[in-house]
Specification:
Oligomer: single chain
InterPro entries: PCMT, SAM-dependent_MTases_sf
CATH topology: Rossmann fold
Strand order of the largest sheet: 5-4-3-6-7-8-9
Strand content: 25-35%
Order of helices and strands: HHEEHEHEHEEHEEE
Largest sheet: 7 strands, mixed
GO molecular function: protein-L-isoaspartate (D-aspartate) O-methyltransferase activity
Number of domains: 1
Protein name: Protein-L-isoaspartate O-methyltransferase
GO biological process, one term: methylation
Enzyme class: transferase
Shape: globular
CATH class: Alpha Beta
Number of helices: 6
Bound molecules: S-adenosyl-L-homocysteine
Helix content: 25-40%
Length: 221
């Protein structure tokens, strides 16, 4: 039998190999992170006209004018966050739910919040479909954190703030780590890692990134 080979009908196993190769070549080296990213299919989180680009290392549009992050950035942020199997993690900016799904495979519990109800509902449906029962998604203004569930071992912010929000810093455990893009919303931002110590907070600059802005208040939908 001959098989016609079109680029848009690539064999899923080959597509996955290329996806993982791209991640590694862009610095995602933590084997635990690579294993989860191999398992969770990004194609489930991208719908409509962009669905066929889900395995490219590029951010893509999702509803409510937001974006699903570039896979290599998801991988690099996750490895910088370094979540442990007993950790409780807060993610600000559920978006498509992809980053939360990756975190769910690496820690005990994930809380993820978004200001858009539609995004939270669509992400929840995918978490159910995948049987990811350790994720709690809710509509909330993440710039205030999630005081009811605080403190957290890890906090990952996937929208850019002008400064690391004070309420999020306060909701980090001592020894905890927060990764957050910081800078003006329409410019290149710097991804920083904040570690809370007994004495205060240590800051490391990781790399340049570009995220949609962290916007205060709930969205219209
Ligand atoms: N982590 C997502 C990508 C996030 S895009 C993924 O894996 O697909 C950034 C998200 O942050 C958007 O969905 C946006 O609605 C959300 N956001 C922006 N400001 C927010 C705020 N104050 N509280 C909660 N979510 C916010």
């Amino acid at each position: 039998m001959t098989v016609d080979h079109h680029d848009d009908e690539e064999d899923p196993a080959e597509r996955k190999m290329r996806f993982l190769f791209q991640l590694r070549s862009r610095g995602v080296t933590d084997p635990r992170v690579l294993a989860v990213m191999e398992r969770i299919d990004r194609g489930l989180f991208v719908r409509g006209q962009f669905a066929d680009r889900a395995y490219e290392d590029t951010p893509l549009p999702i509803p409510c004018g937001q974006t699903i992050s570039q896979p290599s950035v998801v991988g690099l942020m996750t490895q910088s966050l370094n979540p442990g199997p007993r950790d409780t993690v807060l993610e600000i900016g559920t978006g498509s739910g992809y980053q939360a799904a990756i975190l769910s495979g690496l820690c005990r519990r994930v809380y993820t919040v978004d200001r858009h109800r539609r995004l939270v509902q669509e992400a929840e449906a995918i978490f159910r479909q995948l049987g990811l029962h350790n994720i709690t998604a809710q509509v909330a203004d993440g710039s205030r954190g999630l005081p009811d569930q605080a403190p957290f071992d890890r906090i990952l912010v996937t929208a850019a703030a002008e400064d690391p929000p004070g309420s999020l810093l306060a909701q980090l455990k001592i020894g905890g780590i927060m990764v957050v893009p910081v800078g003006q919303s329409d410019a290149v931002q710097t991804l920083i890692r904040v570690t809370r110590t007994d004495a205060g907070y240590d800051y490391d600059e990781l790399r340049q990134v570009r995220f949609v802005p962290l916007v205060e208040g709930l969205g219209p939908t």
